[in-house]
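ingest -> validate -> predict -> emit
validate: passed (alphabet ok, no gaps, 261 aa)
predict: started
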Amino acid sequence: MSKTAWKTIGVACAMLAAAGVAAAQTVEEGTGAPAYPDTLGGTAGGEAAGTPATPSTQPYTPPGSPAGTQVRAIREGEEQAVASYALQLRDLEQRINQLKQEVFRSKARLAQLAETVIQGSGSGRSKIKLVHRNEMSGTFQLVKLVYFLDRSPVYNQTDDSGELGDLEEINVYESIIAPGDHTISVEIEYRGYGHGIFSYLQGYRFRVNSSHTVTIAGGKEVTIQGIGFEQGDPLTAIEERPTIRFTEQIRDLATGMAGGQ
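emit:
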């Protein structure tokens, strides 16, 4: 073989060696390496295997819940930019709701007085009682509870101290009411609680909105109980567990005979 051929081969080998070194440096520095998932989920350099999935923030309707029920997880850090403004709006909203609640209760007392004076008996009256029962586990701490009767607020409590969540049953409202159809609406907010690998839940709020319509006949007392509970099983996503159901207890005002639903 001639010297020229040997020289050409040497130059080609040198170029191949240089290209190999450059490729090795590229892989080492991670500038072109694809991120392949590991065998336990996640990606190399991503979340550690075994870390619980964070809650979805998309609205969700739990199976078997009343029509229109919506549950949503809110990550508290997402609202930091407008926290001060939101707090002011919340305070204003609470004051307005308290005033509405007082006005509504005054109207209910006037209606009760008028009914008593005009009819003089219980034969044409109806009565409604609203009760809330908290059956949630310690993972969900009740921090806000609002009840509306025919779109007027009759109960509005916000408490981050934990005292509201410690109550298993709350007497929400009781009054004389006109017979007919009435709608009860509920707004509930829970604060997530967890420790260890579940400590991330403390950064989330879970909001439940639902409503229930009842037909009240004259001379009847109806007790509506809203029950906040967790549906599903241990494998159900955390944001899909909070929901509410309603029960009705009907009693005859004249005889005291009771029935349920």
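Confidence is low (pLDDT under 50) at residues 30-49.
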